[in-house]
Fold this protein.
Amino acid sequence: MGMVKAVLEHPEDLMPLMKMKVAMEKIKMQIPAEPHWRFAYSMLQKVSRSFALVIQQLGPELRNAVCVFYLVLRALDTVEDDTSIPVDIKVPILLGFHEQIYDRDRHFSCGANAYKILMDKFHFVSIAFLELGKSYQEAIEDITMRMGAGMAKFICKEVETLDDYDEYCHYAAGLVGLGLSKLFHASGLEDLAPDSLSNSMGLFLQKTNIIRDYLEDINEIPKARMFWPRQVWSKYADKLEDLKYEENSVKAVQCLNDLVTNALIHAEDCLEYLSSLKDIYIFRFCAIPQIMAIGTLSLCYNNVEVFRGVVKMRRGLTARVADQTKMMADVYGAFYDFSSLLEPKIDDKDPNASLTRKRIEAIKKACISSGLLKKREFYLVERRTMYNTTLISFIVFLLAVFFAVRSMQ
């Protein structure tokens, strides 16, 4: 019934949702037979369904390298995320993790749920890593080493200043951008992108996640995880956790808007990076997450619900973004659309209102000046089209039966 209700509220989502469901079923059918690759791709679906969807568009050789790269970094991140591991044990693991990926006999059990399975059976990832080409291995090892060192540094260091914030995000995600650019170049399909643009691609995604995940991180047990920089939140509260209380809602939203405005500074670099890509599959792989990021920022901006629960794009809208992102004109259109959705939310009383407007205007100007932004119906704007609700319900029912039968085969 939940799916029927969602489709009735947003009938334009129906076809993209159907396509996404078919694509996910196709992924399951394409999982390789070898045990280590079967584990790698199955685990990829468990730890990131959205990433599993976009990675399948890459060619086999590059897809394998990116899959292993992602799982290695997820494993490294699992070690960093596990707050139950004592610092004196965690730091050496982070610093030496780039060496452990060559050792198929070593593992360190930590994490929970799917991440614990990843760590317990990490030897499968190591076996897959050892089958990659040398240039892929070197790129993955280099980024893993640099990321592990950065994570170790911030275990004993708070995110105090905006410079700290950028540095942390560089280690957590900017390096992922650099690593992916290295893998794309190693495949022979792309020129090597400038580090500054690759870094911005990662920072835009990481800052969006940090903003969106405020409540989850601050409520982390046994210890809160605090990634919002003190230089920003201290202007609005005495303690970062105070922002989640209802009596502080006005200041909390202003702090939120401050950080969204900060994240928007990377959008133009992301557009420049994406516009330089030549391979259509690499382009879609990179573009879809960036559109999801600016879409999420537009939803989070001026939204007190960030401090009450999880704010994210609905599944149908995600499906539409994935379905409609095929060329750079689509990226410019989506960035323009989402910027236009954020713009009316700017309150003149907000301390950063003028700066936010300046950032939004810069993004829209970049989209317009590309010459690729055609007059468009805002496919991301909520609209209500008159559909036959009985017909839609029947179609959804048939789809449910179809996929239920498929799953039994």
Confidence is low (pLDDT under 50) at residues 381-387.
